[in-house]
């Protein structure tokens, strides 16, 4: 009941944040639609930050990554043609899957992600600012960056073409990769606590779930690019998302793994960081067999 009650509380928190952001959005002047959605999204993020601070738990923000895109797309939908349906389907499938994955791992309103606790311990005096700008606003801006190509694709009057369908398949491959990676990881943790997962997709990549997330958003960018090549400069969003995983998420995760699992270094030495590649064979020491 404690977990269920916390889940209901999270739902009410998000309904409140999105309702307040929507009210503010309606008050904004009729200017650039993307700018207005960005402002409303930032307001909702700050509201989540305030409520999370009241509960002393930055993880109140955790489902925002997957829930906010499901809300933000609708102002850009004027009709349900094949192009719009495809973009909505891909983003909807991604958001629902990732949100469901969060539900499975949700432990309650008092449970905070270990990474946030680590920052809180390391920067106690700066924690409110680190929490607002690093844990809340930075991911929100990254999500906005990867969503802008979707906004532009939905706004475009150009029809769907074969290259857009191929790009959508790239996103679907990314979603499938995330799904199977998360499923395999969950099963392995339950049956092999404390051990290094080197089975399934994790045999060929140390972070196949992150690879799937990165692939998903590059696919969205390529859908937009296929529909309107003139908007090619908006690759910055998916690129920033890729860099976030490579230079922040992966180092943090691997530092924890190395600290808690002695066998992780050996796994790391033979397994690709991100791409699905064959395992690297360990080099045997050279033997001096020459005889004089």
Give a topology summary.
Elements: H1 2-27, H2 33-54, H3 64-72, H4 82-105, H5 114-122, H6 127-155, H7 162-191, H8 208-227, H9 236-260, H10 264-270
Helix pairs in contact: 1-2, 2-6, 3-4, 4-7, 5-6, 6-8, 6-9, 7-8, 8-9
Overview of this protein structure:
This protein is an all-alpha fold. It has one domain (2-270). 69% of the residues lie in helices and 0% in strands. The chain has ten helices and no strands. The chain has helices at residues 2-27, 33-54, 64-72, 82-105, 114-122, 127-155, 162-191, 208-227, 236-260, 264-270. Helix 4 runs parallel beside helix 7. The longest helix has 30 residues, at 162-191. The radius of gyration is 21 Å and the shape is globular. Residues 288-292 have low confidence and may be disordered.
Please, how many domains? 1
Instruction: Tell me the structural class.
Output: mainly alpha
Please give the share of residues in helix: 55-70%
Order of helices and strands: HHHHHHHHHH
Instruction: Report how far apart the termini are.
Output: 78 Å
Shape: globular
| Low-confidence spans | 288-292
**Average pLDDT figure:** 94
Q: How many helices does DSSP assign?
A: 10
Radius of gyration: 21 Å
Largest sheet: none
């Amino acid at each position: 009941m404690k977990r269920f009650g916390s889940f209901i509380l999270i739902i009410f928190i998000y309904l409140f944040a999105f309702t307040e952001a929507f009210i503010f959005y309606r008050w904004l002047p009729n200017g650039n639609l993307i700018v207005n959605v960005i402002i409303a999204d930032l307001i909702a993020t700050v509201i989540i930050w305030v409520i999370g601070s009241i509960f002393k738990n930055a993880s109140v923000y955790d489902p925002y990554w997957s829930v906010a895109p499901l809300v933000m797309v609708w102002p850009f939908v004027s009709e349900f043609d094949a192009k719009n349906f495809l973009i909505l389907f891909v983003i909807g499938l991604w958001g629902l899957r990732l949100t469901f994955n969060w539900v499975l791992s949700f432990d309650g309103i008092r449970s905070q992600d270990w990474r946030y606790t680590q920052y809180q311990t390391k920067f106690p005096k700066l924690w409110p600012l680190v929490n607002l700008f690093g844990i809340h606003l930075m991911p929100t801006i990254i999500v906005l960056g990867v969503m802008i190509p979707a906004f532009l694709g939905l706004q475009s009057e150009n029809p769907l073409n074969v290259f857009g369908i191929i790009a959508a398949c790239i996103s679907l491959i990314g979603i499938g990769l995330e799904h199977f990676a998360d499923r395999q990881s969950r099963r392995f943790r339950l049956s092999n606590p404390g051990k290094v997962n080197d089975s399934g997709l994790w045999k060929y990549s140390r972070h196949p779930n992150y690879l799937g997330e990165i692939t998903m958003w590059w696919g969205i960018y390529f859908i937009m690019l296929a529909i309107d090549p003139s908007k090619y400069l908006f690759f910055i969003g998916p690129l920033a998302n890729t860099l976030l995983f490579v230079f922040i998420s992966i180092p943090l995760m691997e530092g924890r793994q190395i600290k808690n699992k002695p066998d992780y270094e050996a796994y790391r030495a033979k397994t690709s960081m991100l791409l699905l590649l064959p395992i690297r064979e360990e080099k045997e020491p050279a033997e001096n067999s020459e005889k004089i």
